[in-house]
Amino acid sequence: MSGALLAISDLHVAHQENRDIVERLRPHSADDWLLVAGDVGELVADIEWALRLLSQRFAKVVWAPGNHELWTPSKDPVQLRGEQRYRHLVELCRQLGVSTPEDPYPVWQGETTAVTVAPLFVLYDYSFLPSGATTKEQALAQAYSEGIVCADEFLLHPDPYPTRDEWCRHRLAVTEQRLAERDPTLPTVLVNHFPLVRHPTEVLRYPVFAQWCGTEHTADWHLRFDAAAVVYGHLHIPRTTWQDGVRFEEVSVGYPREWRRRATRPGQLRQILPAPRG
Ligand SMILES: [Fe+2]
Ligand SMILES: [Fe+2]
């Protein structure tokens, strides 16, 4: 008996109503896996609460960090920054039995197919430039002049790297190596907080925000690494799109003010595999 591969992201459990949603999350069958594509919360204690609860309910939980997990909020007793904060969360996940981008990629075995499930942490590098900009500096200047600046600029510290884009370059190299070393006979499900391709950011309300949403360097990863599906969040625009015949699933819950406006009930788990019919 094999269960399903289900996914969700952007739980943002600092909001009580989102915490209530997490409390209600249940697998559809005892064998289901859950892919959590980042932005669980900001405080380490909140992240631990949510991942512990989910790890007790699902046969396996796989986590990729979002930008919010990497913030260092002044009110968090854990004041680790950057890489050290990420490593601290990885250790926490390991204690809970949750797979992270630093662990061997687990293989999900379905009735008819097996896939390598690869949680990724590649961040962003400001290369999704707004029109009119040709450099990161111009992109940032444009964002500041429009008053649309991601809070990461103040809260997501890249230590020990000088910049977030330097950290991203390092993560790209490490991640490419890991993916190249996977079992080449199996397709993959790639789980990353940010979309691996730029296309989904084209519907952003504020196009200048795209610079905090990914990197051009992953544009062909869904093909290069034989993805059966790509799971991401961050945009808070849940939907399914297709790129080169590959299914991209934006699985975010988002903030209460966002999900209240949607026609669908918040916190429904998206089935990644077996691929839903139609
Ligand atoms: Fe988010
Ligand atoms: Fe995010």
Automatic annotation (TrEMBL):
Record keywords: Hydrolase
Q: Which residues form the Calcineurin-like phosphoesterase domain?
A: 6-238
From which residue to which does any coiled coil extend?
Answer: none
Q: What is its EC number?
A: 3.1.-.-
A GO molecular-function term, please? hydrolase activity
Where on the tree of life does the source sit, at the highest rank?
A: Bacteria
Task: Name one matching Pfam family.
Answer: Metallophos
Protein name per UniProt = Metallophosphoesterase family protein
Source species of the chain: Micromonospora sonneratiae
**Taxonomic placement:** Bacteria, Bacillati, Actinomycetota, Actinomycetes, Micromonosporales
